[in-house]
Amino acid sequence: MDLGLTGKTIAVGGATSGLGKAIAERLILEGATVLGIARSHQTLEEMQTVHGKAFIPVMADLSDSRAVETAAITMNDHQITGCVLNSGGPPPGRVQELSLDDWDAAYHSTLRWKLQLTHALLPSMRERGGGKFIYLESVSIKQPIDNLVLSNVFRAGVAGFVKTLSREEGPNGITANIVAPGYHDTDRISTVLDKAAQLQNIDRGTIEKEFLAEVPLGALGQPKDFAGMVAFLLSPFARYITGQTITIDGGMVRYITG
After folding, report:
1. Which Gene3D superfamilies match (predicted)?
2. Spatial distance between the Cα atoms of 70 and 23, rounded to a whole number of angstroms
3. How confident is the model over 55-65, as pLDDT tens digits?
4. 20 to 30 A Cα–Cα from 33, which one of 54, 63, 101, 147?
């Protein structure tokens, strides 16, 4: 199926690892040009070597407001048609383990930069008659995850922002959606599993079995499968989908609407 992304230019955060890399590679496969954002010059160069002109490297730490401002200028200069807002999540932890400094850092790394980047991109998108925002968050928006209180709180804040954004900017041809992964085979899930094993004082293999027991499909998700949904939402076929939080979790979330 041709998703109609040939000739589109799309920005992807965290484009050199995990889910972000899978999304960038799927979009390139679909004929899009990707502005790949990451902190590592080396990994950006490696992606550009593989994909050539289809991958434009943008080195930026998205938790740094000055870097976000500079990255937004680059995106506007390239007249992007869509933006995938993605970066690493906040560290695991329980309420009593975390300091106010931890909360401040999580606000900047999980919520604030997304507000800043969205604000910076909106005027240009309005002038061009539309655009698409995709925010990569977590199933914790619908079903909080133990030992991840920072993610539970700030990703829910992103959900409130995105729903409001979708209503305000719909008349301008701009859509905004959240794609919320469950347990996928990435470095992030390894961190979560290690923390859970530490707290429960049991081995890593046992805790992984416990996690997978929550997933009806019985396995970790693969990044390339997740990337397919994001590519669809960035395509013309998704023009009537906005303000949604779509979970991709193997059936883990028990919330009745998914």
Report:
1. NAD(P)-binding Rossmann-like Domain
2. 23
3. 999 999 998 99
4. 63
